[in-house]
Design brief:
single chain; alpha+beta; 7-stranded mixed sheet; 5-stranded mixed sheet
Length: about 550
């Protein structure tokens, strides 16, 4: 029986589904990850836009030079062992790790690193972080050293360089269609090798030749698909899964208090936003967007979506842990206050009047249509947010509907700007607010309607904001960087391409009945990363069977 068909069976029947000849190869310990969503085709291309590749791709199979913890900025060496900037911040030198093998047995070298970054230059659509558009001028290798040269200073770019997956030159040099290449037989340097795929489950097996001796401690990792948060939660409660990145309304009462083996870690590292598609009228009108922001009760959104575990997001979009360093005192009270009457009046003043039936009209005098709020199918927290937002907007004469879509259609709708409003997280965050504003609003991370934008989901840009982003990365002076962040915050708060709704935590739920050494607040060896990104690699490396 082939691996694909056996993975289609329920996890409890995996052993029974294996043929007798393969029984001896069955892993003794399997760490099971449950997903609150389903996935598409067998795509293990680490450069695929968004989340089009399978979960194991960049968390277990391919590795990066370094891992940067988004909570505390701590840098963990991976394929790189050290790095240094030149005095003018225009040259970055990275030393690569010796003794590393690709999964096919060939040696990993610094030449693979140089090839990877030059490959992104050769195929710009793969450069999702805009490295070559933001000062990177050349990448060369010599021995075990890689030298990155820049035509202008851009020290924050290290975060993106560090987290770029590295691929083998001896295989990828012949790939000439990387946008459509699905890489069905991936060869990485990671702690696990690809084993099997189906629409219900994906499995990777321990790499016996991994460069960290004695790790990982588990023999396999399996991802299981479900149709939403409730189904994923049930698998954790039943002991069918060990870990899930699942947003539920009440992780304490609805999960942790149900038994001694149930725990969670939800560190706040981002925000959830209501995105406006600024390419569409009336969302193209800043006055309309500002009025809608005033109409939304974000405290109620947070309370109903997360039962008070997470708070309403700050209007600045600067997460609590970064406010002391980056948020000017003058901006702490800048939030638009929830005020239905004021929102109603603001809409009317902006040219969106009501008719006798209380229906809001466009500037052309015609009734505005019912607007769709895009959310992920089965994502109960986002669905709840959309319900509250819809109720709030109804009070000012605007009708809405909730548009639940599977992941590919959800992310695709946001990235191609074919939505009206959508609820999602900030698609880019890091050790300072710069990373959120850069990822969300840089022109190079936008795209024409119908084309895929890496992260500028609102399609909003502003010259002052673009200048502030450039100013931040051109200096290492803290005062100058703080002033640039102040401009970013005030510009976005004035034009409102989004409404910050709630704090966003990493939604880690653990069932500790079979494994120990999960990342926690007391042991934050990663930042609570989702199961499909480089930070999750550290969890798969460190969890231990009991």
């Amino acid at each position: 029986m082939n691996p694909l068909s056996r993975l289609a069976a329920p996890l409890a029947l995996l052993t029974a589904a294996l043929g007798a000849s393969a029984l001896a190869q069955q892993p003794k310990t399997t760490f099971t990850v449950v997903r609150a969503a389903q996935w598409g085709a067998q795509n293990l291309n680490p450069f695929s836009p968004g989340d089009q590749h399978l979960q194991a791709t960049n968390s277990a199979i391919y590795e990066t030079l370094f891992y940067v913890n988004g909570l505390n900025g701590k840098v963990t060496n991976v394929l790189g062992t050290k790095y240094a900037w030149s005095p003018d911040n225009k040259t970055l030198t990275v030393t690569t790790r010796p003794g590393v093998k690709w999964h096919d047995g060939q040696a990993f070298t610094a030449a693979d690193v140089a090839f990877t970054f030059n490959y992104l230059k050769q195929y710009p659509a793969l450069d999702l972080s805009g490295l070559w558009k933001n000062g990177l001028a050349g990448v060369k290798s010599s021995g075990n050293t890689v030298t990155f040269t820049f035509n202008r200073a851009n020290t924050p770019i290290f975060f993106y360089l560090a987290l770029t997956p590295i691929v083998p030159q001896h295989l990828w040099s012949s790939v000439t269609d990387p946008l459509t290449y699905t890489n069905a037989k991936p060869v990485g340097t990671g702690p696990f090798t690809f084993d099997a795929y189906s629409q219900q489950a994906v499995r990777v097996l321990k790499n016996p030749n991994y460069w960290i001796k004695g790790q990982p401690y588990v023999d396999a990792v399996v991802w299981r698909a479900t149709n939403g948060n409730d189904a994923a939660l049930l698998q954790l409660l039943k002991g069918e899964a060990d870990y899930g990145y699942v947003g539920i309304p009440d992780p304490k009462g609805g999960y942790a208090q149900k038994g001694p083996n149930f725990s969670y870690w939800w560190p706040t590292n981002n925000s959830n936003f209501l995105y406006f598609n600024t390419t569409k009228a009336p969302f193209s009108d800043p006055a309309f967007r500002r009025a809608l922001a005033t109409a939304i009760n974000t405290k109620d959104v947070a309370q109903k979506a997360y039962s008070g575990v997470l708070n309403a997001a700050p209007a600045s979009a600067v997460i609590p842990a970064q406010q002391a360093q980056w948020l000017p005192a003058s901006m702490k009270g800048m939030a638009p206050k929830y005020d239905t009457a004021a929102a109603d009046a603001a809409l009317t003043a902006a040219g969106y009047k009501k008719n006798a039936q209380g229906v809001r009209l466009g500037k052309d005098g015609q009734p505005l249509p019912a607007f769709k709020i895009l959310v992920g199918a089965g994502w109960t927290d986002f669905i709840t947010m959309a319900q509250v937002v819809g109720d709030n907007l109804k009070r000012v004469g605007l009708n809405t509907s909730i548009d639940q879509q599977t992941w590919s259609s959800y992310s695709g709708g946001l990235q191609t700007a074919t939505y009206d409003m959508g609820i999602s997280w900030g698609w880019g965050n890091g050790p300072s607010p710069y990373y959120l504003f850069y990822s969300s609003f840089s022109p190079e991370l936008s795209a024409a309607v119908g084309k895929t934008a890496p992260s500028n989901l609102s399609r909003y840009t502003n010259p002052n904001l673009t200048k502030a982003i450039a100013a931040f990365r051109s200096t290492s002076d803290p005062a100058a960087q703080k002033q640039a962040v102040s401009t970013m915050i005030s510009t976005v708060a004035r034009d409102m391409p989004w409404v910050p709704l709630t704090d966003r935590a990493q939604f880690s739920l653990y069932n500790t009945s079979k494994f120990t050494n999960f990342p926690t607040a007391q042991n934050p060896y990663n930042d609570g990363s989702p199961d499909d990104v480089p930070g999750a690699r550290l969890m798969y490396l460190n969890v231990k069977p009991k």
